[in-house]
Amino acid sequence: MKFINHIILFSCLVLLSANGFTQNHNDTLQNDRIGRGLFLFIKTNLQMTEEEAKKSEPIINQYLIDMRKVQFEYKDPMERQQQKATVRLNFRNQLTPVLGITRANRVFVEEAKFRNEVRKLIQQRKNQQKKRRKSI
């Protein structure tokens, strides 16, 4: 299971580095490679059926779009946190009929795991690049 997660994360990073780090905050999962990788990570870790995946993908897509909008539109950190909480509650309420309350809540845990793994991999790449530069 961990091996599959690492493959998904590595694929996401490869695609991200090929595409650059700039993203339009209105992109959908199909255009957002990190978002797509997040969905695949969640799908794998929650062991979603194909039917659950089909039903949850547009919900997760909208969640990511809404979270990006909040990030860009609210400059005040307290307002931004409040809006993010509102988006998460709405998202959970939409996802609960598809996955059930327990698994809908686990999506947030898996999202945090994914983001941490991506950060680790990016940091590892930066460290490897520094080592290469020093050896040249």
Task: Describe the protein's topology.
Layout: H1 2-19, H2 33-45, H3 50-73, H4 77-99, H5 101-135
What would you say this structure looks like, in words?
With 136 residues, the protein is an all-alpha fold. It has one domain (2-120). It is 83% helix and 0% strand. It is flat, with a radius of gyration of 16 Å.
Q: How many H/I helical runs? A: 5
In helices, the fraction of residues equals over 70%
Strand content: under 5%
N-to-C terminal Cα separation, in Å?
37 Å
| Low-confidence segments | 15-27
Q: Oligomeric form of this entry?
A: single chain
Structural class: mainly alpha
Globular, elongated, flat, extended or rod-shaped: what is the shape? flat
Q: Taking Cα atoms only, what radius of gyration do you get, to the nearest Å?
A: 16 Å
Spell out the helices and strands N to C: HHHHH
Number of beta-strand segments: 0
Average pLDDT, to the nearest integer?
84
Integer count of domains: 1
Biggest sheet overview: none
